[in-house]
Queue: 4 jobs
Job 1
Amino acid sequence: MFDKNGYAEEAHRHNKAMENLTAEREKYLEEVTDRRNRIAQLREKLIDANRDIKSTNQLLELARRINELTRKAMPRKPQLSNHYKPSSEMEEYMTIFGLVAGGAMGGLAYLIL
């Protein structure tokens, strides 16, 4: 059993210890909460960075494909001359027709001017 002063002193020590414990618990909870918040923020940044990396990789792949296509020569436009060769008779006829038509157009232009 404590005497009157011993009890008061022990109660004071106990109350002081409880105050210290409460303050330390609050500090602990703040630190734990801050740590969890920082971890959550870093994880969110990591997710954003991964999205950015994926987007960047997709953009780079598209740019590579565009470069690949632009470096290739354009395919030649199909023309009749690639598939059809006129006979020599037809070539002569086309030459004569071209000269006659050209002469007629030239004469007409001369008369108009």
Job 2
Amino acid sequence: MSPPLRTFLLFALVALLYVSTGFLQSWTLALTIFNMGILSAIMALGANMQWGYAGLFNIGIMGFTALGGLAAVLIAMPANPGAWAAGGWRLVAALLMGAATITLAVQLWRRMHSGAGRTLAMLCVLIVGFFAYRWLFDPAVTAIEAVNPASAGNLGGLGLPVLLAWPVGGALAGAAAWGIGKVALGLRSDYLAIATLGVAEIIVAVMKNEDWLARGVKNVVGIPRPVPYEINLQNDAGFVAQAASFGLDPVTASTLWVRICYAGLFLAVLIVLLVLLELALKSPWGRMMRAIRDNEIAAEAMGKDVRRRHLQIFVLGSAVIGLAGAMMTTLDGQLTPTTYNPLRYTFLVWVMVIVGGSGSNWGAVLGGFLIWFFWVQVEPLGILLMQGLTYFMADNSWLRGHLQDSAQHMRLMTMGIILLLVLRFSPRGLIPER
């Protein structure tokens, strides 16, 4: 079978799964899964850039996704004037003080000769800067978090259109990746993986505990939408009449229309990214990245700056992941830091990349849609399966209770089975790199 035909048939099969969900369950559910499948495909594209193009083992995807979500709050939410008046500008001064301290310490390290003098100077700068930072920072945070803590307690955002948060989310994740990459990309691959995982946990921990930033575990709700609200559509006489012409009630029609609007926006982003990444992969830059991935020593011998290229692809891949994180928070309409966990936002994305095909953009997209579909649908199907298997058992049977309680674990078992089958029968993924 030719590769283009194989790709077409695989995507047709995945499309059939989504369409079947619409007919057998509901189109609302099918579109909900589809929208998250698009976002999962974008995240898989970002991870595939890092691993498939350059062989960088990043297991801190969760952190970059969370930074993208934070961007949606900082850009789209309205500012909290009371918090800014209470301690906002003092907090800004504290952050500038911290940045100046780190910058001065770095300059001392670079410009002074090694020895006790340089060490002593750096310690003095860091200690004095730390206490000055805390002197400004702590009272400002206390004042900000005391302003209407039940519904605010944070600085808020800039009140700009939420669509601007998407590229800003990518830029914020890319900036964080640049800082991490400057330090961690010199490490061996397994150390790089540990470092990125640790940084991701730090990012999420900061978001959970710094209420002044995005309300911490109290969450931010009501993030503005780029699409209409259902209640507004239901109150629109023209929309209600149009829905009635299709035999739909206003509630169902408004729900479907909102999800279709999101799907249109997300598909536009996915298509643009896919086209750009395909062009990049087939360009001299793409061939150079794969040459570095396959043999770093030979690439260095040919005059390529391997570490610089690794940093470049690490930043670009993280920016794509941050973009997906901002889009995901926009879809949810809220930022919930406690939902960011490595299983969902790191390891599941890796399964998408491996199953789809490492190094293949089309494979990453296919893996995103396929794995997300099974991730959502396997648990309810597992419950139905266990109910069928235990139908003839007594109600008080310990085995029946055990099997039905274990149905929720079908999701993890299914992911493992899919991964094992793909690695056994198609080690390079469903759509291998060409």
Job 3
Amino acid sequence: MTERAPRLADPGLIGLLGFVIATLTAQLEHLGLQNESPVFWVGAVFGGVVQVTAGMLSYFAGDDFHFIVYNAFGWYWICMPGFLLGGELGFFEVEGPARGVFTLMFSILALVFALSAASRNTVLPVTLLAVAVGLGLQTITAFGGPAAAGAAGSVALLVASALAAYMLLEKFYTRTLGRSILPLGPAWFRPASPVSIQAHTV
């Protein structure tokens, strides 16, 4: 009689939790509703450590998509507190166009990730598109554009945070109640079969 493999927890639970809390905290600061101190600690812990942990656990689960997404945005959030610390202490400061280049890279990455996400459901690619738009608008402000663009970017990122919270609830209830009670919408297209994907792997 073969032993049944133990059921493992889904790393996406903590990955989404980290994204939601860090993004919400940062955008409240960008909109002037709190100061930078919570962004430093919450960003480093929930945005950084928690998301990187989720990404590495996804590696062991063989989940390429979440491995790169959680690691990318996890390390983004590890860098952001460093930017804040440099600004406070006056060394290795990253401001203006340099900050804009950084956010622009992650805006583009979110677009890249959205294409693959569209093969899963509707909410996930919409979330990543909201991230791309939000970071793109904040990039405009970083390059000297109007502050209103950055504020609009914060609103788009708050939308992304709300959508991620919705996915977190869907995943949590599905895993703990044994049935899906929150719809994520249909995938926009079907991915290639696993055999086709393997054939294109070098």
Job 4
Amino acid sequence: MSDDFDHSSNNGDANHNHKLKKPKLNPFISDLQIRAEFAHHDPDTTRINNGSFGSCPSSVLEAQRKWQLEFLKQPDDFFFNHLKPNILRSRAIVKELINADHVDEVSLVDNATTAAAIVLQQIGWAFMEGKFQKGDVAIMLHYAYGAVKKSIEAYVTRAGGCVIEVELPFPVKSDEEIVTEFRKALLKGKSGGRRVRLAVIDHITSMPSVVIPVKELVKICREGGVDQVFVDAAHSIGCTDVDMKEIGADFYTSNLHKWFFCPPSVAFLYCRKSAVNHSNLHHPVVSQEYGNGLAVESAWIGTRDYSSQLVVPSVIKFIDRFEGGIDGIKKRNHDAVVEMGEMLAKAWGTNLGCPAHMCASMIMVGLPASFGISSDYDCLRLRAHLRNKYKIEVPLYYRPTRDGELDSLTGYARISHQVYNTVDDYHRFRDVINELVRDGFNCDQLPTK
């Protein structure tokens, strides 16, 4: 059985092999074909929030359905003969994509949150077993994803570790601002003779969304004697450059369902073989595979749907239909989101949250100050208003002003661009916001429930 259920033969007769074929005028996917691949999206919704849940084309969904039926047809045969080798094939593709040394360094898990639990679990054990001392430090960015912060609380703080957050500016003007704040936090962590056992670094922060100079921060950690470096890169693969040899982290995770066109939910966790004791790494769901290595443990955590991990070869086929493959898609999305962000900021008289080189396929755009956004709750209510009344789906971010600050912008929209988006999506968002401004809209007018 082939991995994508393509049972066609490549053996043609001699005459067939010598037939002349008309060259394709355009070998790459057309706009019409892209629309067909995402025709299952709600046609009435302006969807400029690929970053939250990703998107999966119809051809990959069809491949997923075939895998699901293959399992249901004969579960025993599927389990004993097909599941593990085909998960291995997906892992091998990821290994090449991220430039890892060995496929054993790559495990497939449900999502980046699961990967974080695996990494932080072994940190917690090190505290409990006396390998780390009470008060030893873990450093994370202030803008770390909420679930990762909670995992650090559950596994590190509870075990006796001290957590220091790197305060980051926003809007951010340069990589140097982030590097400076990270160095300050590292010095604070090492004060009083403490050891910094772990640094958790985002590659692309979620809210606000900014590409972090991850290679430089990892280098600083190495020079500063940090024991382990974990890069939470939930958005990275398919969105920005990912190279394990260049980044040099001990652990690195990214979702495949956000920007890499897999169905929910699947992520990879890279664990550097040369620096990490793999015997201490275990999936948080203990199955019969416990002790057989993280990749094997993760490939079977009990009866469940593994199809999202098996469609990676089909995703590669979809990506290869685009000029430049995944690199072409990344450039296309980056260029488009910057252009649309600049258009929106100009239309609203606001600004972007970072320079163009510090965004990938998402960018923060300031909302009009007249909206009077004064809390996270205001952002949630305004987001719901845009969804329910105008069918626009976009995340919003509240940025409190600081003492003496002249910037009056407290609300930002995080817009995404994926291959299915069109200019009309952003023009519609622009026009709705302009309409609200003309109508004198203020967040105080929104219902409280």
